[in-house]
Design goal:
mainly alpha; two-stranded antiparallel ribbon
Length: 515
């Protein structure tokens, strides 16, 4: 089980590593197209605005296509053979599945599945577009499900030898054929089950909207905890855009009345009582930088310099735009419990802010706070603005202390901590001598692991080579691995982890060539 979990975790990290850069592009594009910050330069007719709008769209390509990325990347890490072929097969099967869902809902949406497929995608419709296909919005959950099935088929039948007359259908063709057949009943089941799940989420709206402080707490917690599934859209959309707690939605209502509220001397909470359901973005602005700092401080000192660049790039989109995935996904798959703790802290932060009278539209990042909240409200509502900042900074400290303690107490292998799991010895420099140093390390590791016949499977995460070994007795002592710049070795039965660092992907590529 440990072996399977470590392989799954490693495979999940491939799309995650693309997010920080995309988040930074989105953050700066948002700043540079904001007229309140850039003035006339950000008018939508200028070349400046058009260029940064293009950059914004390019940055969001990663987040808009996450299901496709997961459908392709999981087989690369989980297939036991011909992983490139497995990725192609998974992509094709995933597309077939979505076409089947589209057809079923087109013909039988109202009569059998009780889904209004004529609705526009997005919002509370439960529908989305995947590679130009109108389908049910299952976000990455659907992609992971289909990819797992595709990998299972691939590992079981990719090498199947067919009779001569039909031998042209073996290999990838056979995998897609089997997947095609399996997707028919699966699409039918999903069309029945997933809308029920979506309706269950929507059914929480009335309860939450009538539950006061408890409602704010539960709303924020559920919005955060459902983030990896994509179901958070069904929570925040009716609240932000209406009509869960106010006819035109919190965002629309706040933007329409922000000048009126700014001119009034009444408390913001009395003016905008539904605003407690628009505070869920505070965890991004005040919580995520503290989480990143806790991960930095718990990383091994010699790894901090390298890990800092990744953490900063992941924190920037969170603070500026409220995009938390680049940072949260670095520990979500390593420790789901830590992610749940993060969701609880976010819920507590929103509730405390609401209790102390802080409201406004705060579902985004710092840019929204400054332009749509703090600047307009500073004259007549300076108390609420100061309270907002003070409580936010207090929770930054709380976030840091909780994450720092949890990571150290339970030895959670967040980025930069991997080397703490093994005894660190003196690193022996390996001279490249004009050759590929990654290849030299791969050769050394392969010999230390007992040769290629002793390797069952290999994958990697951000810093480790993760292997399944046939005979652990053939694996050398840690000192042999350290001769080739390994930081240490983690041994858990037949599951071996060689701790390398950020060069691991290059070493793994050379390792696979040797195999």
């Amino acid at each position: 089980m440990i072996e399977k979990l470590q392989k799954f975790g490693g495979a999940m990290m491939a799309p995650v590593m693309l997010m920080p850069f995309a988040g930074i592009i989105i953050g700066f594009s948002t700043i540079f197209t904001n007229a309140d910050i850039m003035g006339a330069l950000a008018t939508d007719t200028t070349i400046w605005y058009k260029f940064w709008s293009m950059m914004y769209d390019g940055g969001y390509a990663i987040f808009n296509q996450l299901p496709l990325l997961f459908a392709i990347s999981l087989p690369l890490g989980l297939a036991k053979k011909a992983s490139g072929r497995a990725a192609m097969e998974s992509f094709v099967i995933y597309i077939i599945f979505n076409y089947f869902v589209q057809s079923l809902l087109t013909f039988f949406g109202d009569s059998i599945f009780h889904v209004d497929f004529a609705q526009e995608v997005g919002g509370t419709s439960g529908l989305t577009m995947i590679a130009g296909i109108k389908t049910l919005d299952m976000s990455v959950i659907g992609a992971i499900l289909i990819a797992a099935i595709a990998v299972w088929i691939h590992n079981r039948w990719y090498d199947k030898k067919l009779p001569g007359a039909i031998s042209s259908f073996q290999g990838s063709a056979l995998i897609v054929i089997i997947g095609f057949v399996l997707m028919i009943p699966l699409a039918f089941v999903v069309c029945f089950v997933w809308p029920i799940v979506q309706q269950g989420i929507l059914g929480l709206q009335e309860f939450l909207s009538q539950s006061g402080n408890l409602g704010v707490f539960l709303f924020t917690f559920l919005e955060r905890i459902t983030l990896p599934t994509g179901l958070h859209h069904f929570l925040w959309t009716p609240f932000d855009l209406g009509p869960a707690v106010i006819a035109d939605g919190n965002w629309t209502h706040w933007m329409a009345h922000v000048n009126e509220y700014a001119a009034s001397t009444e408390s913001l909470k009395s003016l905008f009582p539904t605003g407690g359901f628009a505070l869920y973005g505070n965890c991004a602005v005040f919580g995520m930088p503290a989480v990143a700092f806790a991960m930095y401080k718990t990383a091994r000192p010699e790894r901090r310099k390298k890990i800092a660049a990744m953490l900063i790039s992941a924190a920037i989109p969170a603070v500026l735009c409220g995009i938390t995935e680049p940072l949260e996904f670095t520990f979500l798959f390593i420790s789901p419990v830590l992610f749940a703790v993060s969701a609880l802290l976010a819920a507590l932060l929103s509730t405390v802010l609401y209790v102390f009278g802080v409201v406004g539209y705060q579902g985004g990042g710092l840019i929204d706070y400054v332009t749509y909240n703090w600047m307009p409200m500073l004259k007549n509502h300076s108390g609420e603005v100061i309270t907002h900042i003070v409580i936010g900074l207090i929770f930054s400290v709380i976030y840091f202390l909780v994450f720092y303690w949890a990571i150290k107490k339970f030895n959670i292998p967040t980025p930069g901590r991997e080397v703490l799991e093994a005894e660190i010895g003196e690193e022996v420099a390996v001279s490249a001598s004009g050759n590929n140093i990654f290849k030299e390390e791969a050769v050394g590791f392969l010999q230390a692991l007992g040769g290629k016949d002793n390797i069952e499977s290999v994958t990697n995460c951000m810093t480790r080579l993760r292997l399944s070994i046939k005979d652990v007795n053939l694996v050398a002592e840690d000192a042999e691995f350290k001769k080739y710049n390994a930081k240490g070795v983690v041994r858990k039965g037949n599951a071996i982890q060689v701790i390398i660092g950020f060069d691991v992907e290059n070493v793994k590529n050379e390792f696979e060539k040797l195999l």
